[in-house]
């Protein structure tokens, strides 16, 4: 069983999870049941992935057959941009699809509210100019207080943010009654974001690394980006530790005290990605990895939004 990180909410989050982004709906059932059998206890979902219902079916089957108990799994999902003004309905919609009574973690997926298109619909709300229709009437503070209400209602155990920078995270700490437990961001050896990671950790916010190996094939296909999997430094270390490149990269993430949620649809990779606790990367090699940072973001939503929100 993977180790876990204590969150500021008092709950524990397994340090390795399985991300279900861009997972084929028809293969989700087998994949999640296999993952649970192998030892995964943490699943990272989102309304935007359009597969919460399939994940819910798989979880219901796992609970029904006694493969795992509800209290032994950690389920995250996320509030989509177009639902910032409808937080309670959006959360209930996700719970219904996932067939759960509560979420372990609910995240604000991106720090931007867009035109509401109806709960459960998560297409990017573009204007006639092809640019994202940003709703400037809903502040992130308003959204956050609605997230806090979900905790008081018992629908959600921990709440957090995603894709927030230092400024927005600092602001959230200032206006929050319940502090964000987690900031889920893209970070990997080519995009280390040391300042953001350290800022969050210093203020009691656990960092979850989405795209922890740089998105590999999926992001190459969508965004034309390259992954650090083929980096010569990583390959050399993989040989040294007798591990795969992916295992070295994920172990690096774990040693930075970040939670990693690699996505894979291959059973052998599911096994491989869990095997991170039988070796330690030396301080010297951690420093070497520090040297390959390219400040390189591989997940580029601007492609779909007609505007670069990170500009």
TrEMBL record:
Active-site residues, as the UniProt record annotates them: 49
Any single Gene Ontology cellular-component annotation: cytosol
Family recorded in the similarity comment: Belongs to the aldo/keto reductase family.
Alphabetized UniProt keyword annotations: NADP, Oxidoreductase
Domain NADP-dependent oxidoreductase, residue spans: 16-293
PROSITE patterns: ALDOKETO_REDUCTASE_1, ALDOKETO_REDUCTASE_2, ALDOKETO_REDUCTASE_3
Cross-referenced InterPro entries: AKR, AKR2A1, Aldo/ket_reductase_CS, NAD(P)_OxRdtase_dom_sf, NADP_OxRdtase_dom
Chain positions recorded as substrate binding sites: 109
Name recorded for this polypeptide: (wild Malaysian banana) hypothetical protein
Species for this entry: Musa acuminata subsp. malaccensis (Wild banana)
GO molecular function: aldose reductase (NADPH) activity; aldose-6-phosphate reductase (NADPH) activity
Site positions for Lowers pKa of active site Tyr: 78
Gene3D superfamilies, sorted: NADP-dependent oxidoreductase domain
Entry-linked Pfam families: Aldo_ket_red (PF00248)
């Amino acid at each position: 069983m993977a180790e876990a990180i204590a969150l500021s909410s008092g709950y524990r989050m397994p340090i390795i999870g399985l991300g279900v982004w861009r997972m084929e709906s028809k293969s989700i059932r087998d994949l999640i049941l296999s993952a649970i059998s192998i030892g995964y206890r943490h699943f990272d979902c989102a309304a935007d992935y359009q597969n919460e219902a399939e994940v819910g079916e798989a979880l219901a089957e796992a609970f029904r057959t006694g493969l795992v108990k509800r209290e032994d799994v950690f389920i995250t999902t996320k509030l989509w941009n177009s639902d910032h003004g409808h937080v309670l309905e959006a959360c209930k919609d996700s719970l219904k699809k996932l067939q759960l009574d509560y979420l372990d973690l609910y995240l604000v997926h991106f720090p931007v509210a867009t035109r509401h298109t109806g709960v459960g619909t998560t297409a990017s709300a573009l204007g006639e100019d092809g640019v994202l229709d940003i709703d400037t009437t809903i502040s992130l503070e308003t959204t956050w207080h609605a997230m806090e209400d979900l905790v008081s209602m018992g629908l959600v155990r921990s709440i957090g943010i995603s894709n927030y920078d230092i400024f927005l995270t600092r602001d959230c700490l200032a206006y929050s009654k319940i502090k964000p437990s987690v900031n889920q961001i893209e970070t990997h050896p080519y995009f280390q974001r040391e300042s953001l990671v350290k800022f969050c950790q210093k203020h009691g916010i656990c960092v979850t690394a989405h795209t922890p190996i740089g998105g590999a094939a999926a992001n190459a296909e969508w965004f034309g980006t390259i992954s650090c999997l083929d980096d010569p430094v990583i390959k050399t270390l993989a040989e040294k530790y007798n591990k795969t490149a992916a295992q070295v990269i994920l172990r690096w993430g774990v040693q930075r005290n970040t939670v990693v949620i690699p996505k894979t649809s291959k059973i052998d990779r599911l096994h491989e990605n869990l095997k991170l606790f039988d070796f330690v990367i030396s301080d010297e090699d951690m420093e070497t990895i520090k040297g390959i940072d390219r400040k390189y973001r591989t997940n580029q939503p601007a492609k779909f939004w007609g505007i670069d929100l990170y500009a």
